[in-house]
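Appendix B. One record, verbatim.
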Amino acid sequence: MISICYSGNKRVFPGLLLSVLSLTKYTERALRVYVLSMDLHEENPLYLPFSENQMRILNEVLQKKNAESRAELIDMTQIYKESLAAGKNKKNHYTPYAQLRLYLNELECIPDKIIYLDIDTMCTGDIGQLFDIDISDYEYAAALDYMGKFWIDRHYCNSGVLLLNMREIRKTDLFRRLREFVLTRRMIMPDQSALHRLGKRRMYLPRRFNEQRDIRDDTVIKHFCRGIRWLPFFHIYDIKQWEREKVHKSLKIAFFDDLYEEYDRLAERCDLER
């Protein structure tokens, strides 16, 4: 069974559903999907956890492909409020949900090896190719950050796709140290920069496992993260896979059109927002 973790809130369910649809398209193996979420509606009305109905839809998609697959929602509200909610990175370009992965070592249900995926990722190949990589001598594996390797450090990695050796991370106490770092130091990309500073035992993944630009022939995971364009004028873009028209017109990507059609069929008979 391949174990995968996402984190996010109800508002980005379209992205989560599309990402899971892409997972099931390319692998025959059973998938165990852990979804970290929390209720912070007092802070922001949009910060609501994924609903039971949305999890039912995810399980339907997963089990249609493999009856042994399943998705599990984990409520992280209390554990987050007890620590990082009071930290220096509470308000950031990235939502607090991005920091929930730093608690994976505290969850007994999380297996010794797991893939973490940002919700704005889509598979273009079998995720098993990533999961089967041997990282027994490392804490984690990650690909270089397309922009960060030029502007920050040539070893700077993108944390949107991580292959985690949780057995080793629990031994080295890496995630607890990351949380302390994020709690006390203001950063633009908090959890990612903390991982760069403290996570020294890393394996560098090939670009194909976290493609942050154009899809290539060998790409396994396409990441719809922020990027820069120089022409016709310098600008930063941030287009997600659920922004279908922009994906087609601005990014010139039609690779996922069959998954958009499957998504539309689900939307016709299921209330995706409930």
